[in-house]
Amino acid sequence: CPWPSVVLDSIDSTNAEVMRRISAGYIPPFAVAAERQTAGRGRRGRHWVSPYAENLYYSLALRIDGGARQLEGLSLVIGLAVLATLRSFGVTGVGLKWPNDLLVNNRKIAGILLELVGDPADICNVIVGIGINANMLVANEDIGQPWTSMAAEVPGLVDRTALAVRLGQYLGDYLVRHRDEGFPALRAEWEAGHLWQGARVNLIAGAQTITGIVLGIDSTGALRLSVCGEERAYSGGELSLRLS
Ligand code: BTN
């Protein structure tokens, strides 16, 4: 792996553990994985179901210069690294849903949660949390949304150690490209992996629901929507497909 990594047996959340380690003086980059999470965190305060020894729960601590625009598109670039990892294990039909969900047939196979410690306009710590559904075939808890796993998509079980190593390699590669070339250099690749290009969507952003057609993303990673024939960019929110 490109950084020191540790695998824990059971922890509340690998993201929370990384935060504690940063407070205790560990210097990024470093990664923490776990066999199980008892309080796995998802986006928007949701719970991330994390059964023992079935999936990958991985958090990477990074030190980022927000002032040098290194946060721009970062969460989307992490999505590209996870996408490359899944494809390299033979998962086909996998793609991205802005900003950083990974789906197969509209079912979630992996999720990404970035948490920031410090000032985003300065040097800060970013915790990149990645959950990949690897060998989960049945869920003993309600996941609350359609989901799938690598084992449900490709024959055989996944070697989770190999998965973590491969993920580390792709993260390293993409982070170097992002740091050296900036997000604009990766934008076309991201759009090529986006499953919802041209889709009619609703975007929930704060208290607003915006209806539009996905045009793509801009050079900062914001979503470009055509709303009533006018192009607008949104830097956050939750997308859903509009059926009518
Ligand atoms: C999402 O809601 O899509 C994001 C899910 C992120 C889950 C991962 S699992 C490893 C890391 N630790 C956490 O508590 N959450 C992230």
Task: Describe the structure in your own words.
This protein is α+β, with helices and mostly antiparallel strands. The chain folds into two domains: 5-193, BirA Bifunctional Protein, domain 2, CATH 3.30.930.10; 200-241, SH3 type barrels (Roll). The chain contains five helices and twelve strands. A seven-stranded mixed β-sheet has the order 1-2-3-7-6-5-4, sandwiched between helices. Strands 11-10-9-8-12 form a five-stranded antiparallel β-sheet, with no helix packed on it. Helix 1 links the parallel strand 1 and strand 2 (30-37). The radius of gyration is 17 Å and the shape is globular. Bound molecules: biotin.
Strands, helices and their partners?
Blueprint: E1 5-11, H1 14-23, E2 30-37, E3 56-65, H2 74-88, E4 94-97, E5 101-104, E6 107-117, E7 123-132, H3 150-153, H4 160-181, H5 187-193, E8 200-205, E9 208-217, E10 223-227, E11 230-234, E12 238-241
Parallel strand pairs: 1-2
Antiparallel strand pairs: 2-3, 3-7, 4-5, 5-6, 6-7, 8-9, 8-12, 9-10, 10-11
The chain binds biotin.
Domain BPL/LPL catalytic: 1-179
Keywords: ATP-binding, Biotin, DNA-binding, Ligase, Nucleotide-binding, Repressor, Transcription, Transcription regulation
GO molecular function, one term: biotin--[biotin carboxyl-carrier protein] ligase activity
